[in-house]
Design goal:
With 230 residues, the chain is an alpha+beta fold. The protein is built from eight helices and ten strands. The strands form two sheets. Strands 1, 2, 3, 4, 5, 6, 9 and 10 form an eight-stranded mixed sheet that branches. Strands 7-8 form a two-stranded antiparallel sheet. Helix 4 links the parallel strand 5 and strand 6 (143-146). 35% of the residues are buried.
């Protein structure tokens, strides 16, 4: 009976670790970023394809956590939300031309958003120094934040793993995901935009597994007007 009890306990412990997403107890947490979903749902969701992601949607509480700004300083997302309504944008990296085009569109929207009291914050897996280079290159006047370990992207349900064939294609184009992020996880976020209020509630959510398709700026302005008039 003692052996049966011991085996039962071991099975229960193993199941508990699996459900909570625990890894090797000797494996250190990745530096730079932490995140948690409000309500206790653990971060760590990674899809095997962009089409399989299951992002957070309208009405949910946005994940909170710590990111790094272009200078390498920590930025608390919960505190950022509390500062005012936040247009939180996830992009794949400064190496992506479609992302650069989207970031440029946000430059045009930024003055109107500021007048409405909305701050724009854009997040990517890029290392802080690359964010600084991108901001200087494009003359961005809104914040870029680094989620190199992809913890926050996972918490939002946007993370997917880039397959080996695509990694090889990127290499041929001179795109090195490991160099860009400083990580070997080969993860990217599905491009997404969230409009989040001071309490951390999501009022607008848009994502598309096709990275060439981005949200219409008119839809963002309509959502911003709706949120600020409530």
């Amino acid at each position: 009976m003692a052996n049966v009890f011991a085996i039962s306990c071991l099975v229960a412990m193993t199941l508990a670790l699996t459900l909570t997403g625990c890894g090797d107890p000797g494996e250190a947490e990745p530096p730079g970023t932490t995140a948690a979903i409000a309500g206790g749902d653990p971060a760590g969701r990674v899809a095997e394809r962009a089409e399989d992601v299951k992002p957070m949607s309208e009405g949910a509480h946005a994940p909170v956590g710590t990111l790094l700004d272009a200078d390498g300083a920590e930025v608390d997302l919960e505190q950022t939300y509390a500062e005012g309504p936040t247009l939180l944008v996830f992009f794949r990296g400064g190496w992506c031309p479609y992302c650069s085009e989207h970031l440029a569109d946000l430059i045009d929207l930024d003055p109107e958003m500021r007048e409405m009291g909305i701050q724009i914050v854009a997040v990517s897996p890029d290392k802080p120094d690359l964010l600084s280079d991108k901001a200087d290159e494009m003359g961005l006047n809104y914040r870029l934040l680094s989620d190199s370990p992809m913890t926050v992207a996972q918490a939002f349900g946007l993370a997917f793993r880039v397959d080996d064939e695509t990694i090889e294609q990127y290499d041929d184009y001179g795109i090195d995901l490991e160099e860009s992020s400083g990580q070997s996880h080969h993860l990217l976020p599905v491009p997404a935009v969230y409009l989040i209020d001071r309490e951390g509630v999501i009022h607008f959510a848009h994502w598309n597994p096709d990275y060439k398709q981005r949200v219409d700026p008119a839809d963002l302005m309509a959502a911003a007007t709706r949120v600020t008039s409530e």
